[in-house]
Amino acid sequence: MRKWLARLLRQLGVLRFDLLATAKETFPDPASLKPRELVVVADAGIRKWACFLCPGGCGAHIALSLNQARRPRWQVVLDFWRRPTIDPSVHQTNQCGCHFFIRSGCVEWCQGCMPSLESKADGTIKAT
Ligand SMILES: [Zn+2]
Predict the structure, then answer these.
(1) 127 is a domain residue
(2) Residue 121 has what pLDDT?
(3) How far is the CA of 16 from the centre of ligand 1 (A)?
């Protein structure tokens, strides 16, 4: 219900977000991931993974370890609308090179790390 309301408010331009969090107990099948969805895998109340599709349009499946005993590790904080803030930033070193922050559900691209999708969309290539 809250998610439905959040989507409505987003359509009305009241709420800004690119991603909303969904809780799951098991690691999701990569094929089941949807754009704009961040799956937080928690087992017995312990958060283990944050899974989502790379917002760069490359479609890469990203799984961030939330296990605080391991490195690298990330932290996910959800607000009232379940908009995630992820710390530290996400830097794809293997697949696509996308580098971004997620703050309050919004993707913030690091300078010079915009995905190629963006530059193709308007026919220009940024020289940052
Ligand atoms: Zn990417």
Answers:
(1) no
(2) 41
(3) 21
Name the H helices within the chain.
2-11, 116-121
3 state DSSP class of 25: coil
Distance 113 CA to ligand 1 centre (A): 10
Q: What is the pTM of this model?
A: 0.84
CA 44 to ligand 1 centroid distance, Å: 31
Distance 56 CA to ligand 1 centre (A): 4
Structural domains counted in the chain: 1
Does residue 81 contact residue 74 with C-beta atoms inside 8 Å? Answer: no
Residue 128 lies in a domain: no
The answer to the question of residue 16 being in a domain is: yes
26 in any annotated domain? yes
- Tens of pLDDT along 73-118? 999 999 999 999 999 999 988 768 899 999 999 999 987 766 654 4
Domain that holds residue 69: 2-121
Cα 74 to Cα 9, 45, 67, distances in angstroms: 28, 16, 8
Using the mean position of ligand 1's atoms as its centre, give its distance from the Cα of residue 99 in Å: 8
